[in-house]
Design brief:
169 residues; mainly beta; 2 helices
């Protein structure tokens, strides 16, 4: 198991094949990290589908409004919603969109990130400086690699649960 140095800023995402451990970067993108922890603690990410998964690029999820597969799941609208919380300002940095990085999904407006995020399957340097990076997978990337592909996938995978490591006994 990965060594968790900062449980308050570590996310444990349970997928069908196992746990993905994500180290958040509150020093780089404090508002995005706070939002992820707030939604995780509220259970908002539990059962949310990976609605856009592009081979060789990334897996996108986090639409808590339209993509909860246990509550009002709408595959036609998955990816168009966020949370009830206000959008976040961009927190761009020099951190690259490397394999396993956690990036904030948004519309054309740089200040429109809300609850959606993506995990890069490979280094996606063309995204650098255009999307907020606020975490890095430190263990379990093989489980991310196994997520069903599609836009949207016919039978999407989901985040079974998302928790802050500090809250797990």
């Amino acid at each position: 198991m990965a060594e968790i140095k900062d449980p308050e800023n570590t996310i444990l995402m349970e997928l069908k094949d196992g746990t993905v451990t994500i180290q958040l970067m509150p020093d780089v993108a404090p508002k995005h990290c706070q939002r992820m922890k707030e939604l995780a603690r509220a259970g908002a990410y539990d059962n949310v589908a990976f609605h856009r998964v592009i081979d060789g690029f990334m897996a996108q999820t986090g639409d808590v409004q339209h993509a909860n597969m246990e509550k009002d799941y709408n595959p036609g609208r998955a990816g168009t919603g966020g949370s009830d919380l206000p959008d976040l300002p961009a927190e761009f940095s020099r951190i690259p969109h490397a394999r396993g990085s956690l990036g904030a999904a948004r519309s054309q407006n740089p200040n429109s990130a809300n609850s959606q995020f993506f995990i890069s399957f490979k280094d996606n340097d063309f995204l650098n400086g255009q999307y907020t990076v606020y975490g890095q997978v430190i263990e379990g990337m093989e489980h991310v690699d196994a997520i069903t592909r599609g836009e949207p996938p016919a039978n999407p995978d989901r985040m079974i649960s998302v928790k802050v490591a500090a809250d797990v006994a």
